[in-house]
Amino acid sequence: MTRLSVNLNKVALLRNQRDTGQPDLLEHAKMVLDAGAQGLTAHPRPDERHIRQSDIPLIAGFLKTWPNKSIEFNIEGYPSEDFIRLVTRHECDQVTLVPDDPNQKTSDHGWDIPAQEIFLSDVVRRLKEAGRRVSLFIDPKPDMARAAADIGAQRIELFTGPYAFNPDLLPAYVETAEAGYRAGLEINAGHDLNLNNLAGFISAVPQCAEVSIGHALTSDALLMGWHGAVTAYLTAIQYGQKAA
Asked: How do residues 7-29 score in pLDDT, each as one tens digit?
């Protein structure tokens, strides 16, 4: 079963427009989990335009009190020294490393792992020694999946933005997922997945362990409420798995 991790960045973005603390991030995290999501994702950027570094210990502490201990906390970000300290100091299950420039609106490409092999190998080693599962954000290229395995990553997250705009690219994702799976990796996916394309992706990549979705799911929650939106996404995942 593919797990649904809800990215809280857009809730934090709205909160940051005022100094009132509303919407309250943890109240919305509770609603997301009450609706059936199996994980929470946060992506603290250097400019703190949405999730702030100070949110990370709050979310980690909240999850410690949550009755369902199988809920996972995934923290995404560029592996600066500040970020590494953050994710090793505060409890989380998974760290997803992304090659973001601080000025990017959002993640828009995966790692060139061979070009960054020495740097990434060291980061992966440090995070694994701290007890964190490490996932690398990659484009749909089989060679990158194999390279991720070679430097010790445990998962890859397939950047699904291009697929969302061009479903004809799906075979490249299938090939990359299969290459990663054969290399011993687990497969995650994220970016621009929505109710129109999620089931099709899961049907083609049934070994997908987790999808991390924020923008589209939050947009749908404005219309459907968190319970309705999370339920709809879980249903799309189930439909995709049945069609696989």
From this structure: 999 999 999 999 999 999 999 99
- Condensed to tens digits (0 to 9), the pLDDT of residues 149-180 reads 999 999 999 999 999 999 999 999 999 999 99
* Of the candidates 216, 207, 224, 214, the residue with the CA atom closest to the CA atom of residue 156: 207
Closest CA to 210 of 156, 166, 164, 145: 156
Residue 97: closest CA among 43, 132, 135: 135
Q: Which residues belong to the active site? A: 43, 76, 191
Instruction: Give the CB-side neighbour count of residue 217, counting CA atoms within 13 A.
Output: 32
Residues with Cβ within 8 Å of 48's Cβ and at least 6 positions away in sequence, in order, are 16
Domain boundaries, the chain: 3-243
Please give the backbone phi and psi of residue 78, each rounded to the nearest 5 degrees, phi first: -75, 135
Domain 3-243 sits in which CATH superfamily?
Aldolase class I (3.20.20.70)
